[in-house]
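Researcher: Re-running this chain for the archive, since the previous output was lost when a drive failed. Same request as before.
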Amino acid sequence: MLKYIWLYFRRRPGRILVFIFVVALGVAVSIVLSSIFLSFGETRSRISKINENWITVQYLSDTGRKEEIDDSLKEIFADVSGISDVIQVDIAYLGYNLFGSARANFPVYGIKQTDIARILQLSQSYIVDGRIFSPKTNEIMVSDSFLKASGVGIGLVYEEIFETASTGLYNVVAALKGPSVFGIGPSEISGGKGAYGFIVLSERGFSIAVESELRSRIAGEELKVGVQGPISSRENIERSYSGYYLGVLLCNLCVALVFIIGLTMLNSVSIRERKKEYGILAAIGHSPASLGARLFFESVYQCAAGWIIGLFAGRILVSYLETRFFEPNGLFVGDIFVSTIWTLVIPAVTVVFTQVLIGSHLSRDLVGLLKSSEKKKGILKNRFKNISLPWLRFPLRSDGYRSLFVNIIVFALLVTLFGSLLSSLTDTIRDSGRFFDSCSYVQTTESGDIELPEEIVSRSRAVLPASLLNLDVKLIFGTTEIFIPVVSSKDSELVPTLVGGTSENAFYVSKGLFDLINSGEVNGYGNSSPVVLPSLYGLSGIVVEEEVAAEGLLIFHAGDDLVEEIRLFASEAGVVEVVDRRSFEAKILKESQFMNLITSIIIYLQFFVVVIIAIVTVTRIVLGRRKELAIRNIIGQGRGEIALLLFGELILVLFSGATIGFLLGTMSWSIFGAFFLSGVYISSFVAAKVFLRIFIMILIVLFSGLAMERYLISRQDPLSIIER
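Model: Regenerated structure tokens:
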């Protein structure tokens, strides 16, 4: 058996090596993509893991600590056995950016300086850079991974606006390192509005029992207090990993689809070329079952070699990405053992599909098998027998281009599907900020605190007091916010989009936002009845009320772009929030960078497979038609003319396959959207962007095939070919 495989390898080393390489590439890419997904789960688990060291008892308050709740909790602590100590804390929450896929909140504990050493010892953490925070300041010490994820360094101010418990500016003075992600700051870090509570320390071996007892006692007292400890920590970790394992599975299935189709097409080329070999083996006494077993083990050995190489390559790539991608983005590498097992799908299914192809050929009798090796048979053989253009006859009547044709269809379909998916995500965020393309909103706690410089006022079209209404809109993954300005009826005349008069207590919206509101997928607008205003575009709106409790200023730009100048003024004046065009550009980057990464990897993988299939197909076609090419050369056709004929065949195959794939992808996207994306805003038909991407990549494949054709044709000697 091995001797037979070795002889085939010596005869066709390039084809076997290409097959092994493609298997290894698919396995390695699956491992890398899985590691990206699992790094998010591992990072979330590091955030939850802090509650394995102690039990956090906390409650939310807008007016600082509540003595009645604190007294009740202290009485409960005194009655629960197994508690070794209790530390009073304030808790703020900061957002951890998981490379644009989501945000995970982690706690910053406000404690006394005398408790710092104890907290660090219990959490197995230590200070790697910086200094201890000062009492009664906004200074914090946070995990170094958070600093990397947020792009903040020691000595810089971190501004957290959309956090869970508190708002404000934090001065980062030190970086912590350890198995958990958390922060430490001075007492009253919440600034009077946030979370308050206690860190409960238990005796060794009593943490789970203490957490259960605290939950039971607090529920009995009917206190609105949360308890987080080892039990909830494990639940959060399992929940995080279960979601990301689902992402790993779906991602691996997409990668497997790309490579299984490509590998099956490569095998189909090999099987068709070896029909005569199979017939000869059958003639000397090999039964179909014996041949099937021989070819089965041949496929198994090749796939096994590719899988093993892919495992090593994947591990090396993950180690490289850990230092160049994960750590610089504040992510931790998760356990990729399960995803490694899932990569067996690629070689296993390829072997099964190959056996199906082999079985259809070996089921014939000996004479039929030998005769089929000389036939050029295709789906359209009889239909185009007398076609008027001779150079079209071969691609339409032969199955020589089938592998390339099928892969081009799959490639165009995937580009269309993933391109549409990515566009629908980014378009929703981009169009939710259409109103702020030519204006900026600055907000503070009191509108009277804002006094714009004369230079900005003189270059502005209008400056009027306003507030913001926040609406939640459904995305493909999660939700996003739409900011709706609220202005008074007196000032509404200064709003450029409200030309022609307005009514008091009116809610003007664009057509896109109106449709979403009617579908019931928008929350936060109250009982107002929306009115469509043709001058509003995308997902935008404006509320006109008789009187407005203004919390900021709405600044309409005249001709100049004042975005940067307004932002500079806001940072110097200590403005809490600025909403402008740049706000949504940053939001698009954060919300879509992960989906953009995954989409690009899958699309370019399929593109790479298509290029390999194209080169293999062109090589096979040219070498299989050497006699025809020699005769064409002898009767006077030049090599350039022959190359042009083959170029025409490639154009026909590539563009017909791309057209079919694009139409199938568009149809699939429409069906997918109708069933699974109900209530999700899609701003425009994304065919133009997707079509351009397909067209450019098809041109690259086309010219790659043309270069291979010209190289092979230039090496053909007509006389030697005819003599053979």
